[in-house]
Write a structure and sequence with these properties.
It is a single chain. The protein has 306 residues and is mainly α. It has one domain. Helix 3 runs antiparallel to helix 4. It starts with a helix and ends in a 5-residue tail after the last helix.
């Protein structure tokens, strides 16, 4: 490790600006589209998994498959500096381990489309974390986009508290995961710019697997076997836990945490479509209006930082 790199290392928690402060180009929009398509379907795979498996088993299976997928790439095994290994391990628990347990637990009480729409709050919370960590506000376009998105998320979230206590609890668990995702989207930026996405994700997922393994093993006796649930773990692990995290780490490294996380704004559209088509779920008019506002906020936020 060079002396220059040692001097540029920042403590955790910390973040930095993206390497591209201009408007999104084809690379950024391509990364964004890939993330949205993959993660938009993950809520459907979780619902199918819950037909036979307990949440802990789902988290254990998807992280194991995701780790194995990323580990296939030689680049993933590039060594990290000793002082960064602990950071990446903590990041793995906060970014992957805890949220990937919370989502299947929450989806025992809320629909996959609702989980997908609530997950769209990540960019808003990411911007709030960035303001704290960078000690400065985003540009006016980003603030406007965040404001529009916040109105949309409010429209989506409000009906959940008008339902049963169990449904509200499910929504709260998703929001806890959203807060952790948002913090991690900022923390990953300087690390990704230093090492690239693959080495970070491989170590982070290993740490997440160690974290969820005891929970998963304890959950096995309460689970049953079903081929459809088992097969759902394949795209959930290989794509949603392996590829999508690599794509997001790459995007936030280029665009910064707040702007890169707007990929999540497009996840609800995919989640809603799949939930309605395959699970016969109903989506209220207010939630659809809120989703439209979230998408508008995403476009505004993607413009150049000024």
């Amino acid at each position: 490790m060079s002396d220059d790199l040692e001097h540029t290392r920042t403590p955790l928690p910390a973040t930095s600006a993206g390497s591209n402060l201009g408007a999104f180009g084809w690379t950024e929009w391509g990364l964004l589209a890939g993330i949205a398509l993959i993660w938009g379907s993950s809520f459907l795979w979780i619902d199918i998994g819950l037909e036979a498996f307990n949440p802990g088993v789902i988290a254990m299976a998807r992280i194991a498959l995701g780790t194995a997928t990323v580990g296939l790439f030689r680049r993933a095994r590039v060594p990290l500096a000793p002082e960064d290994r602990r950071r990446v391990a903590v990041l793995g628990v906060v970014w992957i381990g805890i949220p990937l347990i919370l989502f299947p637990v929450a989806q025992q009480w809320i629909d996959s489309s609702v989980a997908g729409m609530l997950n769209a709050g990540v960019p808003i919370v990411t911007a709030a974390w960035a303001t704290i960590l960078l000690a400065r506000l985003p540009g006016w376009r980003q603030l406007l986009g965040i404001g529009v998105g916040f109105v949309g998320i409010t429209a989506i979230f409000l009906p959940e508290f008008q339902d049963t206590t169990a449904t509200a609890l499910g929504a709260i668990l998703v929001l806890i995961a959203v807060i952790l995702y948002a913090l991690s989207a900022n923390l990953i930026v300087p690390l990704q710019q230093r090492y690239g996405a693959l080495p970070l994700l491989f170590r982070a997922q290993l740490a997440a697997f160690v974290f969820v393994l005891p929970i998963g093993l304890v959950s096995i006796p309460g689970s049953t076997w079903a081929w459809n649930s088992a097969l759902a773990m394949i795209p959930l692990g290989l794509l949603s836990t392996g590829l999508a995290f690599v794509l997001l780490a790459t995007l936030v490294g280029r665009a910064g945490g707040p702007r890169g996380s707007i990929a999540i704004y497009f996840v609800p559209i995919v989640a809603i479509a799949l939930g309605v088509i395959f699970l016969d779920e109903m989506v209220g008019r207010l939630a659809l209006i809120g989703t439209g506002l979230v998408v508008l906020g995403a476009w505004i936020t993607s413009r150049p930082e000024v």
